[in-house]
Amino acid sequence: MAVFVDGQHKTDYGHIILSCDNILQNSKKVSDTPSRGDGISAEDERDIRIVGCELIQCAGVLLQLPQVATATAQILFHRFYLVKSMVIHNYEHLAMAAVFLAAKVEEHPRRVRDIINCFHHYKQHKEKKPVVPLDFTGSLYVKMKNDIIKAERRLLKELGFCVHVKYPHKIIIIVLALILEQKQNTELIQVAWNFMNDSLKTDVFLRYTPDQIGCACIWLAARMKKVVLPESPPWYELLDCSQETCTEISETIMTLYTLPRPDTAKLDRAINAAKEAYELKKSFNEKTKKDLKDSVIKSTPSYSPVPEKETSKDGSPVEHHSRESGKTQKNGSDGYKNGRRKHSPSRKRYSPASPRRKNDRYSRSKKHRSRSLSGSDTSPRRHNKHRSRRRVSVSSHDDSSTDSEAAEARRKRHEDKKRMQDQKRIQEKIRQLEKSKERKKDRIGDASRERKSHKVK
After folding, report:
1. Contact partners, residue 47, CB within 8 Å, separation at least 6
2. How many CA atoms lie within 13 A of 65 on its CB side?
3. How many other β-carbons are positioned within 10 Å of the β-carbon of residue 117?
4. Residue 234: beta bridge partners?
5. Where are the beta strands (DSSP E) in 244-343?
6. CA-CA distance, 440 to 433, in Å (whole number)?
7. Among 230, 219, 227, CA closest to 168
8. Is 172 exposed, middle or buried (0-12, 13-18, 19+ CB in 10 A)?
9. CA 320 to mean position of chain CA atoms
10. CA-to-CA distance for 136 and 283, rounded, in angstroms?
11. 54-66 confidence digits (pLDDT tens)
12. Per-residue model confidence as pLDDT tens digits over 2-18
Protein backbone atom coordinates (compact mmCIF):
# COMPACT_ATOMS: atom_id res chain seq x y z
CA MET A 1 0.00 0.00 0.00
CA ALA A 2 1.46 3.36 -1.03
CA VAL A 3 1.43 6.21 1.49
CA PHE A 4 2.85 9.75 1.68
CA VAL A 5 5.08 10.62 4.65
CA ASP A 6 6.45 14.18 4.89
CA GLY A 7 5.56 14.76 1.27
CA GLN A 8 7.52 11.72 0.10
CA HIS A 9 6.09 8.65 -1.57
CA LYS A 10 6.75 5.51 0.45
CA THR A 11 5.52 1.93 0.30
CA ASP A 12 4.12 0.24 3.38
CA TYR A 13 4.93 -3.47 3.15
CA GLY A 14 3.87 -4.45 6.65
CA HIS A 15 3.69 -3.53 10.30
CA ILE A 16 7.26 -4.61 11.18
CA ILE A 17 9.64 -1.64 11.30
CA LEU A 18 13.34 -2.48 11.03
CA SER A 19 15.38 0.52 12.18
CA CYS A 20 18.14 1.32 14.65
CA ASP A 21 15.73 3.34 16.83
CA ASN A 22 13.71 0.26 17.76
CA ILE A 23 16.37 -1.11 20.10
CA LEU A 24 16.83 2.10 22.09
CA GLN A 25 15.61 1.74 25.68
CA ASN A 26 15.37 4.02 28.66
CA SER A 27 17.69 3.78 31.65
CA LYS A 28 15.13 1.89 33.74
CA LYS A 29 14.76 -0.84 31.11
CA VAL A 30 18.53 -1.17 30.69
CA SER A 31 19.08 -1.47 34.44
CA ASP A 32 16.24 -3.99 34.92
CA THR A 33 17.60 -6.87 32.82
CA PRO A 34 16.78 -10.59 33.15
CA SER A 35 20.25 -11.18 34.60
CA ARG A 36 19.42 -8.97 37.58
CA GLY A 37 16.30 -11.00 38.20
CA ASP A 38 18.35 -14.23 38.26
CA GLY A 39 20.72 -13.00 40.97
CA ILE A 40 23.52 -11.23 39.06
CA SER A 41 24.47 -7.91 40.64
CA ALA A 42 24.82 -4.70 38.64
CA GLU A 43 28.62 -4.66 39.09
CA ASP A 44 29.02 -8.27 37.97
CA GLU A 45 26.82 -7.70 34.94
CA ARG A 46 28.86 -4.65 33.97
CA ASP A 47 32.12 -6.60 34.35
CA ILE A 48 30.76 -9.52 32.28
CA ARG A 49 29.85 -7.12 29.49
CA ILE A 50 33.37 -5.65 29.60
CA VAL A 51 35.02 -9.09 29.53
CA GLY A 52 32.83 -10.23 26.64
CA CYS A 53 33.62 -7.13 24.60
CA GLU A 54 37.36 -7.55 25.27
CA LEU A 55 37.14 -11.14 24.01
CA ILE A 56 35.43 -9.92 20.84
CA GLN A 57 37.98 -7.14 20.31
CA CYS A 58 40.97 -9.48 20.70
CA ALA A 59 39.38 -12.08 18.43
CA GLY A 60 38.81 -9.38 15.80
CA VAL A 61 42.51 -8.46 15.92
CA LEU A 62 43.63 -12.09 15.64
CA LEU A 63 41.18 -12.79 12.81
CA GLN A 64 42.21 -9.55 11.04
CA LEU A 65 38.64 -8.29 10.93
CA PRO A 66 37.89 -4.62 10.24
CA GLN A 67 36.81 -2.47 13.18
CA VAL A 68 33.31 -2.25 11.70
CA ALA A 69 32.79 -6.00 12.11
CA THR A 70 34.19 -5.94 15.65
CA ALA A 71 31.90 -3.05 16.61
CA THR A 72 28.90 -4.89 15.16
CA ALA A 73 29.69 -7.98 17.22
CA GLN A 74 29.96 -5.97 20.45
CA ILE A 75 26.67 -4.16 19.86
CA LEU A 76 24.88 -7.45 19.10
CA PHE A 77 26.38 -8.85 22.30
CA HIS A 78 24.85 -5.99 24.33
CA ARG A 79 21.48 -6.26 22.59
CA PHE A 80 21.14 -9.96 23.34
CA TYR A 81 21.71 -9.62 27.08
CA LEU A 82 19.12 -6.87 27.19
CA VAL A 83 16.43 -9.56 26.77
CA LYS A 84 18.18 -12.74 27.99
CA SER A 85 19.96 -13.75 31.17
CA MET A 86 23.69 -14.36 31.57
CA VAL A 87 22.90 -17.18 33.99
CA ILE A 88 21.22 -19.30 31.32
CA HIS A 89 23.36 -18.34 28.29
CA ASN A 90 27.15 -18.56 28.47
CA TYR A 91 28.78 -15.24 27.59
CA GLU A 92 31.85 -16.88 25.96
CA HIS A 93 29.71 -18.90 23.55
CA LEU A 94 27.65 -15.83 22.74
CA ALA A 95 30.78 -13.74 22.13
CA MET A 96 32.02 -16.32 19.60
CA ALA A 97 28.59 -16.45 17.97
CA ALA A 98 28.48 -12.62 17.78
CA VAL A 99 31.87 -12.56 16.00
CA PHE A 100 30.76 -15.32 13.63
CA LEU A 101 27.52 -13.50 12.77
CA ALA A 102 29.00 -9.98 12.56
CA ALA A 103 31.73 -11.18 10.19
CA LYS A 104 29.04 -12.44 7.82
CA VAL A 105 26.92 -9.30 8.19
CA GLU A 106 29.85 -7.04 7.29
CA GLU A 107 30.85 -9.33 4.39
CA HIS A 108 34.10 -10.54 5.96
CA PRO A 109 33.14 -14.13 6.86
CA ARG A 110 35.42 -16.32 8.93
CA ARG A 111 35.31 -20.05 9.56
CA VAL A 112 34.01 -21.41 12.84
CA ARG A 113 37.25 -23.33 13.21
CA ASP A 114 39.31 -20.11 13.10
CA ILE A 115 37.08 -18.37 15.63
CA ILE A 116 37.30 -21.28 18.08
CA ASN A 117 41.07 -21.42 17.65
CA CYS A 118 41.45 -17.67 18.38
CA PHE A 119 39.31 -17.75 21.52
CA HIS A 120 41.08 -20.90 22.75
CA HIS A 121 44.50 -19.31 22.16
CA TYR A 122 43.52 -16.07 23.94
CA LYS A 123 42.11 -17.96 26.94
CA GLN A 124 45.33 -19.99 27.39
CA HIS A 125 47.46 -16.85 27.04
CA LYS A 126 45.34 -14.94 29.57
CA GLU A 127 45.46 -17.76 32.14
CA LYS A 128 49.27 -18.03 31.60
CA LYS A 129 49.08 -21.65 30.52
CA PRO A 130 51.23 -23.31 27.87
CA VAL A 131 49.67 -22.66 24.49
CA VAL A 132 48.51 -26.01 23.11
CA PRO A 133 46.66 -26.10 19.78
CA LEU A 134 43.12 -27.39 19.93
CA ASP A 135 42.50 -30.89 18.59
CA PHE A 136 39.99 -30.41 15.80
CA THR A 137 39.08 -34.10 15.82
CA GLY A 138 38.29 -34.26 19.54
CA SER A 139 35.02 -34.01 21.38
CA LEU A 140 35.84 -30.55 22.83
CA TYR A 141 36.02 -28.95 19.40
CA VAL A 142 32.80 -30.63 18.25
CA LYS A 143 31.00 -29.45 21.39
CA MET A 144 32.23 -25.86 21.02
CA LYS A 145 31.24 -25.80 17.37
CA ASN A 146 27.71 -26.99 18.14
CA ASP A 147 27.42 -24.44 20.95
CA ILE A 148 28.43 -21.59 18.62
CA ILE A 149 25.92 -22.60 15.96
CA LYS A 150 23.13 -22.88 18.53
CA ALA A 151 24.09 -19.52 20.07
CA GLU A 152 24.05 -17.85 16.64
CA ARG A 153 20.55 -19.15 15.93
CA ARG A 154 19.38 -18.02 19.35
CA LEU A 155 20.92 -14.59 18.77
CA LEU A 156 19.11 -14.18 15.47
CA LYS A 157 15.83 -15.35 16.99
CA GLU A 158 15.92 -12.97 19.93
CA LEU A 159 16.92 -9.98 17.79
CA GLY A 160 14.27 -10.79 15.20
CA PHE A 161 16.97 -10.95 12.49
CA CYS A 162 17.41 -7.18 12.90
CA VAL A 163 21.23 -7.09 12.93
CA HIS A 164 21.73 -3.76 11.20
CA VAL A 165 23.98 -1.40 13.15
CA LYS A 166 24.74 2.26 12.50
CA TYR A 167 28.14 3.50 13.69
CA PRO A 168 29.18 6.99 14.83
CA HIS A 169 32.71 6.69 13.42
CA LYS A 170 31.78 8.37 10.15
CA ILE A 171 29.97 11.13 12.04
CA ILE A 172 33.17 11.97 13.96
CA ILE A 173 35.15 12.46 10.76
CA ILE A 174 32.42 14.47 9.03
CA VAL A 175 31.73 16.79 11.98
CA LEU A 176 35.38 17.49 12.79
CA ALA A 177 36.49 17.93 9.19
CA LEU A 178 33.58 19.79 7.63
CA ILE A 179 31.55 21.47 10.38
CA LEU A 180 34.18 22.27 13.03
CA GLU A 181 37.06 22.69 10.54
CA GLN A 182 39.42 20.53 12.58
CA LYS A 183 40.66 18.39 9.69
CA GLN A 184 44.32 19.12 10.43
CA ASN A 185 43.99 18.32 14.13
CA THR A 186 44.65 14.59 13.82
CA GLU A 187 45.30 14.23 17.53
CA LEU A 188 41.78 15.41 18.35
CA ILE A 189 40.33 13.04 15.78
CA GLN A 190 42.32 10.12 17.20
CA VAL A 191 41.25 10.79 20.79
CA ALA A 192 37.57 11.03 19.77
CA TRP A 193 38.00 7.77 17.80
CA ASN A 194 39.48 6.03 20.86
CA PHE A 195 36.60 7.19 23.05
CA MET A 196 34.24 5.80 20.44
CA ASN A 197 35.88 2.35 20.47
CA ASP A 198 35.94 2.26 24.27
CA SER A 199 32.27 3.21 24.48
CA LEU A 200 31.44 -0.10 22.79
CA LYS A 201 32.15 -1.83 26.13
CA THR A 202 29.36 0.11 27.83
CA ASP A 203 25.60 0.15 27.33
CA VAL A 204 25.40 3.61 25.73
CA PHE A 205 24.47 2.09 22.37
CA LEU A 206 21.31 0.74 24.00
CA ARG A 207 20.18 4.16 25.26
CA TYR A 208 21.40 6.78 22.77
CA THR A 209 21.53 7.21 19.01
CA PRO A 210 24.83 6.99 17.11
CA ASP A 211 24.68 10.74 16.36
CA GLN A 212 24.43 11.57 20.06
CA ILE A 213 27.28 9.20 20.92
CA GLY A 214 29.48 10.75 18.22
CA CYS A 215 28.79 14.27 19.51
CA ALA A 216 29.60 13.16 23.08
CA CYS A 217 32.94 11.66 21.99
CA ILE A 218 33.90 14.87 20.16
CA TRP A 219 32.77 16.98 23.13
CA LEU A 220 34.83 14.85 25.55
CA ALA A 221 37.91 14.84 23.30
CA ALA A 222 37.77 18.63 22.98
CA ARG A 223 37.66 18.95 26.77
CA MET A 224 40.64 16.59 27.12
CA LYS A 225 42.73 18.43 24.51
CA LYS A 226 41.47 21.89 25.55
CA VAL A 227 40.16 22.72 22.09
CA VAL A 228 37.55 25.47 21.99
CA LEU A 229 34.48 24.61 19.91
CA PRO A 230 31.69 27.05 18.92
CA GLU A 231 28.97 27.37 21.56
CA SER A 232 26.79 30.12 20.10
CA PRO A 233 24.91 28.46 18.63
CA PRO A 234 25.96 25.08 20.03
CA TRP A 235 27.38 22.87 17.29
CA TYR A 236 25.88 19.63 18.72
CA GLU A 237 22.32 20.86 18.20
CA LEU A 238 22.78 20.19 14.49
CA LEU A 239 22.69 16.46 15.31
CA ASP A 240 19.74 16.65 17.71
CA CYS A 241 21.90 16.46 20.82
CA SER A 242 22.00 18.48 24.02
CA GLN A 243 24.69 19.29 26.55
CA GLU A 244 23.01 17.09 29.19
CA THR A 245 23.15 14.10 26.82
CA CYS A 246 26.83 14.75 26.07
CA THR A 247 27.54 14.96 29.80
CA GLU A 248 25.76 11.67 30.59
CA ILE A 249 27.53 9.76 27.82
CA SER A 250 30.90 11.25 28.77
CA GLU A 251 30.45 10.26 32.42
CA THR A 252 29.61 6.69 31.39
CA ILE A 253 32.75 6.49 29.25
CA MET A 254 35.01 8.03 31.90
CA THR A 255 33.68 5.62 34.54
CA LEU A 256 35.11 2.83 32.45
CA TYR A 257 38.67 4.05 33.11
CA THR A 258 38.23 4.20 36.89
CA LEU A 259 37.12 0.56 37.28
CA PRO A 260 39.56 -2.19 38.32
CA ARG A 261 40.32 -4.94 35.88
CA PRO A 262 37.55 -7.59 36.03
CA ASP A 263 38.43 -10.90 37.67
CA THR A 264 37.11 -13.69 35.42
CA ALA A 265 37.42 -16.33 38.17
CA LYS A 266 35.26 -14.25 40.49
CA LEU A 267 32.72 -13.68 37.74
CA ASP A 268 32.56 -17.41 36.99
CA ARG A 269 31.91 -18.14 40.66
CA ALA A 270 29.13 -15.53 40.76
CA ILE A 271 27.53 -17.01 37.64
CA ASN A 272 27.74 -20.57 39.01
CA ALA A 273 26.17 -19.50 42.32
CA ALA A 274 23.36 -17.72 40.50
CA LYS A 275 22.88 -20.74 38.26
CA GLU A 276 22.56 -23.09 41.26
CA ALA A 277 20.01 -20.76 42.83
CA TYR A 278 18.13 -20.61 39.53
CA GLU A 279 18.04 -24.42 39.23
CA LEU A 280 16.90 -24.76 42.84
CA LYS A 281 14.15 -22.22 42.31
CA LYS A 282 13.10 -23.93 39.09
CA SER A 283 12.91 -27.37 40.73
CA PHE A 284 10.97 -25.91 43.67
CA ASN A 285 8.46 -24.29 41.31
CA GLU A 286 8.02 -27.53 39.39
CA LYS A 287 7.50 -29.46 42.62
CA THR A 288 4.98 -26.89 43.85
CA LYS A 289 3.06 -27.09 40.59
CA LYS A 290 3.04 -30.88 40.74
CA ASP A 291 1.80 -30.92 44.37
CA LEU A 292 -0.88 -28.39 43.52
CA LYS A 293 -1.99 -30.49 40.57
CA ASP A 294 -2.13 -33.66 42.71
CA SER A 295 -4.13 -31.87 45.38
CA VAL A 296 -6.60 -30.62 42.78
CA ILE A 297 -6.96 -34.13 41.36
CA LYS A 298 -7.53 -35.62 44.82
CA SER A 299 -10.08 -32.99 45.78
CA THR A 300 -12.03 -33.46 42.55
CA PRO A 301 -14.89 -36.01 43.03
CA SER A 302 -14.59 -39.07 40.86
CA TYR A 303 -17.55 -39.92 38.66
CA SER A 304 -17.43 -43.71 38.42
CA PRO A 305 -19.78 -45.46 36.01
CA VAL A 306 -20.48 -48.18 38.65
CA PRO A 307 -24.23 -48.56 39.02
CA GLU A 308 -25.93 -48.64 42.37
CA LYS A 309 -26.70 -52.01 43.96
CA GLU A 310 -30.11 -53.34 43.17
CA THR A 311 -32.35 -53.89 46.14
CA SER A 312 -35.76 -55.44 46.50
CA LYS A 313 -38.77 -53.86 48.14
CA ASP A 314 -37.78 -55.15 51.57
CA GLY A 315 -34.23 -53.74 51.22
CA SER A 316 -32.40 -57.04 50.65
CA PRO A 317 -29.91 -57.32 47.76
CA VAL A 318 -31.15 -58.85 44.56
CA GLU A 319 -29.71 -62.26 43.71
CA HIS A 320 -28.50 -63.18 40.22
CA HIS A 321 -27.85 -66.55 38.73
CA SER A 322 -24.51 -67.09 36.96
CA ARG A 323 -24.70 -69.16 33.79
CA GLU A 324 -21.02 -70.03 33.90
CA SER A 325 -20.75 -71.31 37.46
CA GLY A 326 -24.40 -72.29 37.87
CA LYS A 327 -24.41 -70.67 41.32
CA THR A 328 -26.63 -68.00 42.77
CA GLN A 329 -24.67 -64.86 43.72
CA LYS A 330 -25.63 -61.56 45.22
CA ASN A 331 -25.28 -58.25 43.48
CA GLY A 332 -21.75 -56.87 43.92
CA SER A 333 -20.30 -60.10 45.37
CA ASP A 334 -17.46 -62.19 43.93
CA GLY A 335 -18.03 -63.41 40.42
CA TYR A 336 -19.51 -60.09 39.32
CA LYS A 337 -17.67 -56.95 38.34
CA ASN A 338 -19.03 -53.69 39.73
CA GLY A 339 -22.40 -55.23 40.32
CA ARG A 340 -22.71 -56.49 36.76
CA ARG A 341 -22.93 -60.04 35.57
CA LYS A 342 -20.05 -61.40 33.55
CA HIS A 343 -20.77 -61.91 29.90
CA SER A 344 -20.56 -65.50 28.77
CA PRO A 345 -18.53 -66.15 25.64
CA SER A 346 -20.67 -66.12 22.53
CA ARG A 347 -21.36 -69.47 20.96
CA LYS A 348 -20.04 -70.11 17.52
CA ARG A 349 -22.83 -70.75 15.11
CA TYR A 350 -22.63 -72.55 11.84
CA SER A 351 -22.44 -70.14 8.92
CA PRO A 352 -23.64 -71.29 5.50
CA ALA A 353 -21.01 -69.03 3.91
CA SER A 354 -18.12 -70.80 5.67
CA PRO A 355 -16.12 -73.39 3.69
CA ARG A 356 -17.63 -76.85 4.02
CA ARG A 357 -15.58 -79.92 4.63
CA LYS A 358 -15.71 -83.07 2.65
CA ASN A 359 -17.35 -85.16 5.36
CA ASP A 360 -19.77 -82.44 6.47
CA ARG A 361 -23.29 -83.73 7.02
CA TYR A 362 -24.81 -80.57 5.52
CA SER A 363 -22.87 -80.84 2.27
CA ARG A 364 -25.03 -83.79 1.27
CA SER A 365 -27.90 -83.34 -1.09
CA LYS A 366 -31.49 -82.98 0.03
CA LYS A 367 -32.26 -86.33 -1.57
CA HIS A 368 -29.69 -88.12 0.57
CA ARG A 369 -30.98 -86.45 3.71
CA SER A 370 -34.56 -87.40 2.90
CA ARG A 371 -33.45 -91.02 2.48
CA SER A 372 -31.72 -90.98 5.82
CA LEU A 373 -34.85 -89.60 7.44
CA SER A 374 -37.11 -92.20 5.79
CA GLY A 375 -34.82 -95.07 6.72
CA SER A 376 -34.48 -94.11 10.35
CA ASP A 377 -36.75 -95.45 13.05
CA THR A 378 -36.59 -92.33 15.15
CA SER A 379 -39.32 -89.75 15.38
CA PRO A 380 -38.95 -86.33 13.72
CA ARG A 381 -38.66 -84.66 17.12
CA ARG A 382 -35.76 -86.90 18.14
CA HIS A 383 -34.10 -86.40 14.81
CA ASN A 384 -34.32 -82.60 15.19
CA LYS A 385 -32.69 -82.88 18.59
CA HIS A 386 -29.88 -85.00 17.18
CA ARG A 387 -29.51 -82.54 14.31
CA SER A 388 -29.09 -79.57 16.68
CA ARG A 389 -26.38 -81.46 18.54
CA ARG A 390 -24.59 -82.16 15.30
CA ARG A 391 -24.80 -78.48 14.40
CA VAL A 392 -23.21 -77.39 17.67
CA SER A 393 -20.45 -79.97 17.36
CA VAL A 394 -19.62 -78.91 13.82
CA SER A 395 -19.57 -75.23 14.73
CA SER A 396 -17.17 -75.89 17.60
CA HIS A 397 -14.28 -76.12 15.16
CA ASP A 398 -12.25 -73.01 14.61
CA ASP A 399 -13.36 -71.23 11.44
CA SER A 400 -10.18 -69.19 11.32
CA SER A 401 -8.00 -72.29 10.91
CA THR A 402 -10.25 -73.51 8.08
CA ASP A 403 -10.03 -70.16 6.31
CA SER A 404 -6.24 -70.09 6.65
CA GLU A 405 -5.94 -73.65 5.28
CA ALA A 406 -8.14 -72.78 2.31
CA ALA A 407 -6.14 -69.63 1.61
CA GLU A 408 -2.89 -71.59 1.79
CA ALA A 409 -4.23 -74.17 -0.64
CA ARG A 410 -5.31 -71.46 -3.09
CA ARG A 411 -1.90 -69.84 -2.85
CA LYS A 412 -0.14 -73.11 -3.59
CA ARG A 413 -2.36 -73.78 -6.60
CA HIS A 414 -1.68 -70.29 -7.89
CA GLU A 415 2.08 -70.77 -7.50
CA ASP A 416 1.99 -74.14 -9.23
CA LYS A 417 0.00 -72.69 -12.10
CA LYS A 418 2.40 -69.79 -12.46
CA ARG A 419 5.39 -72.14 -12.38
CA MET A 420 3.91 -74.29 -15.14
CA GLN A 421 3.24 -71.23 -17.26
CA ASP A 422 6.84 -70.06 -16.83
CA GLN A 423 8.17 -73.48 -17.79
CA LYS A 424 5.99 -73.56 -20.93
CA ARG A 425 7.13 -70.09 -21.88
CA ILE A 426 10.81 -71.05 -21.48
CA GLN A 427 10.35 -74.25 -23.49
CA GLU A 428 8.64 -72.31 -26.27
CA LYS A 429 11.55 -69.86 -26.44
CA ILE A 430 14.06 -72.73 -26.59
CA ARG A 431 12.07 -74.35 -29.41
CA GLN A 432 12.03 -71.10 -31.39
CA LEU A 433 15.76 -70.65 -30.95
CA GLU A 434 16.42 -74.16 -32.21
CA LYS A 435 14.23 -73.57 -35.23
CA SER A 436 16.01 -70.32 -36.04
CA LYS A 437 19.38 -72.10 -35.81
CA GLU A 438 18.19 -74.82 -38.18
CA ARG A 439 16.94 -72.24 -40.69
CA LYS A 440 20.27 -70.43 -40.53
CA LYS A 441 22.18 -73.68 -41.16
CA ASP A 442 19.92 -74.45 -44.10
CA ARG A 443 20.52 -71.01 -45.60
CA ILE A 444 24.28 -71.40 -45.18
CA GLY A 445 24.19 -74.85 -46.78
CA ASP A 446 22.15 -73.64 -49.75
CA ALA A 447 24.54 -70.73 -50.31
CA SER A 448 27.60 -73.04 -50.23
CA ARG A 449 26.00 -75.42 -52.70
CA GLU A 450 25.20 -72.57 -55.09
CA ARG A 451 28.81 -71.34 -54.93
CA LYS A 452 30.11 -74.84 -55.70
CA SER A 453 27.78 -75.19 -58.68
CA HIS A 454 28.96 -71.87 -60.09
CA LYS A 455 32.59 -72.99 -59.76
CA VAL A 456 31.90 -76.24 -61.59
CA LYS A 457 30.29 -74.40 -64.45
Report:
1. 259, 262, 263, 267
2. 32
3. 18
4. 231
5. 319-321, 328-330, 336-337, 340-341
6. 11
7. 219
8. buried
9. 60
10. 37
11. 999 999 999 999 9
12. 444 455 545 555 555 55
